[in-house]
């Protein structure tokens, strides 16, 4: 049996275990371990006397990975970004943001919903996790929308969709994970997410305004805030801006001088400022401990998937499966753009059934080299490439596309985690209600993704300056 | 995909062992969380030192790499106890009664076998970096300030041993539920419906926002 | 026989001898003995020795400074101011040290056997702003340098700041470090030269040492013909590496001109001062450290010096 056939068998086994309900991290690690044993044993001609040797080598090879991969400076961003989100909550930033957005934007048709979208976008600038963002805003924003007569399903849909912005707008745990898997500059990727995130929020806003104009009784505009009230709402929300500015300055100095440090440091400084604000806002030891344990739980969950999948990826390396898949993709006689669109559609389907992080970790080791090969290779110049951009830019562009797909999967049935969370926060809403309410946003996301594919400049403008 | 679950308790030996182990697991998870906090403080010290006093934290990267296994791995058993590791529950969610306990027993057994093998593998990884005869007992050191790496590597097999104990308890719990045909067994994470799960998540956020 | 070879990064001047070796061996054995070179697929760069020790792959490259405690004996080759001037001299001293029993014994603990070196030129600085061409100007300079070179800079008041090689560009751009010490090929492949205003042409503080090793069991399992093909190809592979790197160095002045990077020459007086502060004391500290551990430090250092003398005598 060739190593590619072994690779396909092992991958199939893993998918079966995942579907049968084995925890994803352990299914991936287990499949990887089986694959390694198989590869090493096959090397000795499957001689029964050599099985023990093969098992030992495979187990020791797999045993390097949890420590080896986790002890990484770049990955240290993940717990930091998660911690920021929890601390921001205790610092009262969520309420302040929503209040400011309401006073400034609620006069629009569908104004309260538009305010919710932009408040989530603002919170996204300190929160690295979509699910946490949706949970927080379901509590604050939905009651206010219901009070003035919004359809409860639509109100829930706004929050579920708005929550997904947290993973495009930096900081973002999932963008960091992408950067690590494909070995690209974390700072540039975080920077690249900013404009598409805002673009996405604007499309959501436009969709809401459009619906409010067409559908009678959709939800009234809220007028009557004075300019004085508007400006009074700004100072409590300002700390968010300060944190955003600091994180951005640590990645890229817009005034052309030196940036202030590395993204790792920027994330940590941002977290520290929010920590001080939370202290000022009344957070004490029990709340801090709670925030820390929640951060640990979410981080460990993510890291377990990371090292589990990387054991599987190490097996793929020995089986040379990514190289083989890339060769196959590039040998297809279809236009590269058509293949890319097919890959994105495949992500949309896969995303209906899978968790975002697990999906990226499982697929990228094989799909990413293929996409890079499709464009003409890692070192291709823009002029010679299939997508009209050099290798680095293609890696960034594809990363944003894939992360947007992963966010899309958070709101699609049957398994859309954001919708579950929103339904959980509001007892009056069933999961079905939220899925129905979020459906219009599929259109908005389709428009956003089409826009990002057709106009890569939206993604690449900011990182190309840095 | 579902994560969170609830664990029932009673006065049985299994449940008492569950709660004893939980205390240890909780402590390890708290250490993980404190690790994340320390990471943040390290960065602040490093930046302030560099910008303010031209005296950056020596070996900043080495210290981060030493702290990461504490943050990312030490509390792994606590997450397993709470049923917090992500899985797809389309199939499991549709099962009930003995069929469910059998399915849970089998996947838990597979995970136990895997983690037992990984205790061996990660111990070997530690063992290669450790030598009683060498200064600092070290046979592997970090790139910048030559920190011995064996303590960070030792964390992994320790954390994995604890999760093995946890998995063994869960096997006992699922096996008991299967044999006795229990409805709501103790000491194992029970699958919550999507609604229950989200309610738990939301619950967590209740009452903190001001 | 099919061997897996673990290296890291992208294919570059630093890995060309391995590809040449694979070609030669396959040719000499009529395709009986082949090597798959994997860039990062089989191991993390700091764990290549572990992989060799386990037997996961048969051949690998690593750098001594990544993990000094794994390979104490060969850290002699990373001491500052050894006075190695050319790549040929670097090959000669590496070969001599690799052949020393203390080195062979330490490698054997990892089931590893030295095959060849990956000679690197001196790690000169690139930097931004005003050139740091005197020791006074180096005081307080934040420099990305590891191992013995980092210690040498520290001795003159500079501040070694840790960033990984792949983060070096970002660190320089963001002002986390003022200067980066690398070999020329690394200044090119990690992009630090694009950010630089100047490069020190003659500071020559030292270099790093990156051997290629094979797993002992795999080596012993080779047929006589295969082992002969492997051993006889090493000198050819090294020659190829040297001529390839030589081409790169020839183009270096053009690269500097193209990126408008100033070539900074440091005065002999300053160099002598630097060597006095950053050379001898650090070598002495290393000697004390080695002898405390029962390693023949003095013998290794003398070996480097005598080899250097002999090498110059033959030229
Ligand atoms: Na975010
Ligand atoms: Na979904």
From TrEMBL, chain A:
<feature type="transmembrane region" description="Helical">
    <location>
        <begin position="154"/>
        <end position="181"/>
    </location>
</feature>
<dbReference type="Pfam" id="PF06808">
    <property type="entry name" value="DctM"/>
</dbReference>
<protein>
    <submittedName>
        <fullName>TRAP transporter large permease</fullName>
    </submittedName>
</protein>
<keyword id="KW-0812">Transmembrane</keyword>
<keyword id="KW-1133">Transmembrane helix</keyword>
<feature type="transmembrane region" description="Helical">
    <location>
        <begin position="201"/>
        <end position="222"/>
    </location>
</feature>
<keyword id="KW-1003">Cell membrane</keyword>
<keyword id="KW-0813">Transport</keyword>
<feature type="transmembrane region" description="Helical">
    <location>
        <begin position="112"/>
        <end position="142"/>
    </location>
</feature>
<feature type="transmembrane region" description="Helical">
    <location>
        <begin position="357"/>
        <end position="375"/>
    </location>
</feature>
<dbReference type="InterPro" id="IPR004681">
    <property type="entry name" value="TRAP_DctM"/>
</dbReference>
<dbReference type="GO" id="GO:0005886">
    <property type="term" value="C:plasma membrane"/>
</dbReference>
<feature type="domain" description="TRAP C4-dicarboxylate transport system permease DctM subunit">
    <location>
        <begin position="12"/>
        <end position="457"/>
    </location>
</feature>
<feature type="transmembrane region" description="Helical">
    <location>
        <begin position="331"/>
        <end position="350"/>
    </location>
</feature>
<feature type="transmembrane region" description="Helical">
    <location>
        <begin position="298"/>
        <end position="319"/>
    </location>
</feature>
<feature type="transmembrane region" description="Helical">
    <location>
        <begin position="74"/>
        <end position="92"/>
    </location>
</feature>
<feature type="transmembrane region" description="Helical">
    <location>
        <begin position="437"/>
        <end position="462"/>
    </location>
</feature>
<keyword id="KW-0997">Cell inner membrane</keyword>
<feature type="transmembrane region" description="Helical">
    <location>
        <begin position="395"/>
        <end position="425"/>
    </location>
</feature>
<comment type="function">
    <text>Part of the tripartite ATP-independent periplasmic (TRAP) transport system.</text>
</comment>
<keyword id="KW-0472">Membrane</keyword>
<feature type="transmembrane region" description="Helical">
    <location>
        <begin position="267"/>
        <end position="286"/>
    </location>
</feature>
UniProtKB/TrEMBL annotation, chain B:
<feature type="transmembrane region" description="Helical">
    <location>
        <begin position="60"/>
        <end position="79"/>
    </location>
</feature>
<feature type="transmembrane region" description="Helical">
    <location>
        <begin position="154"/>
        <end position="174"/>
    </location>
</feature>
<keyword id="KW-0812">Transmembrane</keyword>
<dbReference type="GO" id="GO:0005886">
    <property type="term" value="C:plasma membrane"/>
</dbReference>
<dbReference type="InterPro" id="IPR055348">
    <property type="entry name" value="DctQ"/>
</dbReference>
<keyword id="KW-1133">Transmembrane helix</keyword>
<dbReference type="InterPro" id="IPR007387">
    <property type="entry name" value="TRAP_DctQ"/>
</dbReference>
<keyword id="KW-1003">Cell membrane</keyword>
<keyword id="KW-0997">Cell inner membrane</keyword>
<comment type="subunit">
    <text>The complex comprises the extracytoplasmic solute receptor protein and the two transmembrane proteins.</text>
</comment>
<protein>
    <recommendedName>
        <fullName>TRAP transporter small permease protein</fullName>
    </recommendedName>
</protein>
<dbReference type="Pfam" id="PF04290">
    <property type="entry name" value="DctQ"/>
</dbReference>
<dbReference type="GO" id="GO:0022857">
    <property type="term" value="F:transmembrane transporter activity"/>
</dbReference>
<feature type="transmembrane region" description="Helical">
    <location>
        <begin position="100"/>
        <end position="123"/>
    </location>
</feature>
<comment type="function">
    <text>Part of the tripartite ATP-independent periplasmic (TRAP) transport system.</text>
</comment>
<comment type="similarity">
    <text>Belongs to the TRAP transporter small permease family.</text>
</comment>
<keyword id="KW-0472">Membrane</keyword>
<keyword id="KW-0813">Transport</keyword>
<feature type="domain" description="Tripartite ATP-independent periplasmic transporters DctQ component">
    <location>
        <begin position="39"/>
        <end position="172"/>
    </location>
</feature>
<feature type="transmembrane region" description="Helical">
    <location>
        <begin position="26"/>
        <end position="48"/>
    </location>
</feature>
């Amino acid at each position: 049996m060739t190593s590619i056939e072994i690779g396909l068998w092992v991958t199939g086994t893993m998918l079966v275990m995942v579907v049968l309900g084995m925890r994803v991290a352990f299914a991936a690690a287990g499949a990887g371990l089986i694959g390694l044993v198989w590869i090493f044993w096959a090397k000795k001609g499957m001689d029964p006397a050599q099985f023990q040797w093969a098992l030992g080598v495979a187990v020791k090879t797999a045993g390097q990975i949890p420590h080896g991969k986790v002890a990484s400076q770049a990955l240290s961003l993940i717990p930091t970004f998660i911690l920021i989100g929890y601390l921001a909550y205790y610092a009262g930033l969520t309420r302040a943001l929503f209040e400011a957005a309401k006073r400034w934007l609620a006069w629009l048709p569908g104004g309260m919903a538009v305010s919710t979208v932009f408040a989530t976008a603002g919170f996204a600038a300190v929160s690295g996790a979509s699910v946490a963002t949706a949970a927080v805003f379901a509590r604050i924003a939905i009651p206010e929308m219901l009070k003035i007569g919004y359809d409860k399903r639509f109100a829930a849909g706004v929050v579920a969709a708005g929550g997904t912005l947290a993973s495009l707008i930096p900081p973002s745990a999932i963008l960091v994970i992408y950067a690590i898997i494909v070995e690209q500059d974390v700072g540039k990727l975080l920077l690249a997410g900013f404009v598409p995130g805002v673009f996405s929020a604007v499309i959501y806003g436009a969709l809401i305004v459009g619906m409010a104009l067409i559908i009678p009784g959709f939800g009234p505009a809220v007028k009557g805030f004075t300019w004085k009230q508007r400006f009074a709402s700004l100072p409590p929300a300002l700390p968010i801006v300060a944190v955003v500015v600091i994180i951005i300055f640590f990645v890229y100095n817009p005034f052309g001088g030196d940036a202030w440090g590395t993204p790792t440091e920027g994330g940590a400084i941002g977290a520290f400022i929010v920590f001080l604000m939370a202290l000022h806002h009344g957070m004490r030891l029990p709340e801090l401990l709670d925030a820390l344990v929640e951060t640990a739980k979410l981080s460990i969950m993510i890291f377990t998937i990371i090292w589990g999948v990387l054991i599987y990826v190490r097996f793929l390396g020995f089986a040379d499966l990514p190289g083989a898949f890339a060769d196959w993709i590039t040998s297809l006689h279809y236009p590269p753009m058509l293949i890319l669109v097919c890959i994105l559609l495949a992500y949309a389907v896969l995303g209906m059934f899978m968790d975002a992080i697990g999906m990226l970790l499982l697929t990228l080791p094989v799909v990413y080299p293929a996409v890079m090969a499709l464009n003409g290779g890692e070192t291709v110049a823009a002029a010679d490439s299939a997508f009209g951009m050099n290798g680095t830019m293609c890696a960034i562009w594809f990363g944003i596309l894939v992360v947007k797909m992963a966010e899309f999967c958070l709101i699609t049935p049957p398994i859309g985690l954001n919708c579950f969370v929103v339904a959980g926060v509001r007892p009056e809403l069933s999961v079905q209600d939220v899925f129905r309410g979020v459906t219009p946003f599929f259109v908005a996301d389709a428009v956003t993704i089409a826009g990002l594919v057709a106009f890569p400049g939206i993604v690449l403008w900011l990182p190309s300056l840095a | 995909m579902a994560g969170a679950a609830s664990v029932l308790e009673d006065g049985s030996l299994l449940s008492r062992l569950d709660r004893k182990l939980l205390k240890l697991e909780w402590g390890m998870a708290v250490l993980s969380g404190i690790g994340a906090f320390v990471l943040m403080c390290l960065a602040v010290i490093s930046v302030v030192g560099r910008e303010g006093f031209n005296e950056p934290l020596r070996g900043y990267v080495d210290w981060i790499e030493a702290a990461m296994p504490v943050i990312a791995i030490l509390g792994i058993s606590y997450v397993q106890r709470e049923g917090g590791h992500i899985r797809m529950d389309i199939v499991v969610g549709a099962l009930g009664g003995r069929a469910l306990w059998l399915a849970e027993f089998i996947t838990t057994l597979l995970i136990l076998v895997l983690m037992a093998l990984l205790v061996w593998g990660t111990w070997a990884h530690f063992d290669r970096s450790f030598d009683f005869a060498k200064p600092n007992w070290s046979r592997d050191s970090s790139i910048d300030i030559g920190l011995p790496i064996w303590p960070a590597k030792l964390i992994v097999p320790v954390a994995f041993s604890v999760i093995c104990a946890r998995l063994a308890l869960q096997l006992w719990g699922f096996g008991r539920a299967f044999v006795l045909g229990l409805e709501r067994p103790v000491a194992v994470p029970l699958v919550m419906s999507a609604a229950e799960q989200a309610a738990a998540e939301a619950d967590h956020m209740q009452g903190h926002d001001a | 026989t099919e061997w897996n070879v673990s290296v890291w990064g992208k294919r570059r001047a630093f890995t060309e001898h391995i590809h040449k070796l694979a070609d030669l061996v396959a040719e000499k054995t009529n395709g009986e003995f082949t090597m798959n070179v994997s860039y990062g697929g089989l191991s993390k760069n700091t764990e290549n020795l572990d992989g060799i020790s386990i037997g996961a792959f048969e051949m690998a490259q690593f750098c001594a400074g990544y993990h000094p405690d794994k390979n104490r004996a060969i850290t002699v080759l990373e001491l500052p101011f050894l006075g190695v001037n050319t790549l040929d001299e670097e090959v000669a001293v590496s070969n001599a040290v690799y052949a020393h029993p203390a080195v062979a014994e330490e490698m054997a603990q990892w089931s590893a056997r030295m095959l060849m070196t990956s000679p690197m030129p001196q790690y000169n600085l690139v930097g931004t702003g005003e050139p740091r061409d005197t020791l006074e100007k180096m005081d307080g300079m934040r420099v990305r340098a590891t191992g013995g070179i980092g210690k040498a800079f520290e001795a003159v008041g500079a501040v070694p700041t840790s960033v990984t090689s792949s983060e070096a560009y970002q660190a320089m751009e963001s002002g986390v470090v003022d200067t980066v010490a690398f070999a020329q090929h690394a200044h090119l492949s990690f992009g630090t030269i694009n950010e630089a205003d100047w490069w020190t042409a003659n500071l020559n503080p030292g270099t790093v040492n990156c051997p290629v090793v094979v797993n002992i069991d795999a080596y012993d399992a080779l047929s006589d013909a295969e082992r002969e093909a492997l051993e006889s190809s090493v000198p050819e592979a090294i020659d190829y590496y040297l001529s390839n790197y030589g081409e790169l160095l020839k183009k270096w002045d053009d690269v500097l001109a193209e990126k408008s990077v100033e070539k900074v020459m440091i005065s002999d007086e300053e160099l002598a001062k630097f060597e006095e502060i950053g050379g001898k004391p650090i070598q002495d500290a290393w000697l004390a450290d080695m002898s405390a551990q029962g390693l023949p430090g003095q013998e290794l250092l003398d070996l480097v010096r005598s080899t250097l003398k002999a090498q110059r005598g033959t030229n």
